[in-house]
Amino acid sequence: MKGVRFHGRGGEGIVIAAELLANAAFREGRWVQAFPYFGGERRGAPVTAYVRIADRTIRLRGPLYEPHYVVVLNPLLAETVNVTEGLKKSGLLLINGRRQRSRPGLEGRRVVTVDATRIAVKLGLFVAGSAVVNTVMLGALARATKLVSLESLQQAIRERCQVNSARKTRRQRYSVTCS
After folding, report:
1. What is the three-state SS of 72-123?
2. Comparing C-alpha atoms, which of 75, 69, 72, 95 is closest to residue 148?
3. Phi and psi for 23 in degrees, rounded to 5?
4. CA atoms of 33 and 54, how far apart (whole Å)
5. 46 - beta bridge partners?
6. What one-character DSSP code corresponds to residue 100?
7. Helices (DSSP H) in the chain: which residue ranges?
């Protein structure tokens, strides 16, 4: 079983990223769990989401204390939250950012930095004026770990976008019909 922990702020798509990764693994016939952890905080507060992926039934319930992979969508969060807590000695830390900063306690761990914000801007991935980095980081995670295939990940993203488009279209039709 492999565990992934996502760190970010409310509204950045952390929970969606976890769901997309779980969906991609499920498409490949794996057993999955995806769940967020946050309190009653507002948009912008720290959010954590977890994914477990296994080749057989997952009987564990509860927090993921020792992930194999940690994905940090908001690089500033790493300055206030211990994002490496519990990361396995052979683990991967994937950070959205321009360059790798030295971090104590990362001996033996692989650190990969991806400028997901720049890539999202270049691709025109925006929601409500903010760059959408969650899917860029998922692509980087898939490539760096081979945890899921890029094809499965793309299918999961396309499916999610179709559902959102259908909801938006229904809302638009409803507002036109009811006005």
Report:
1. ECCHHHHHCCCCCCCCCCCCEEEEECCCCCCCCCCCCCEEEEECHHHHHHHH
2. 69
3. -60, -45
4. 9
5. 9
6. P
7. 14-27, 116-123, 134-145, 150-178
Asked whether 4 and 67 are in contact (CB, 8 A), the reply is: yes
Render pLDDT for 163-176 as a digit per residue (tens, 0 to 9). 655 555 555 544 44
Q: Are 64 and 50 in contact (CB under 8 A)?
A: yes
How is residue 167 written in tokens? 């909801």
DSSP string for residues in 10-28: TTSSHHHHHHHHHHHHHHT
- In 3D space, the residue among 86, 89, 92, 56 whose CA is nearest the CA of residue 72 turns out to be 92
Rg (the chain; Cα; Å)? 17
pLDDT tens for 73-88 read 998 888 888 999 999 9
Q: How far apart are CA 10 and CA 52, in angstroms?
A: 21
CA-CA distance, 16 to 101, in Å (whole number)? 27
Structural domain boundaries of the chain?
2-178
Domain 2-178 classified CATH 3.40.920.10? yes
Model confidence over 124-139: pLDDT tens digits? 888 878 888 999 999 9
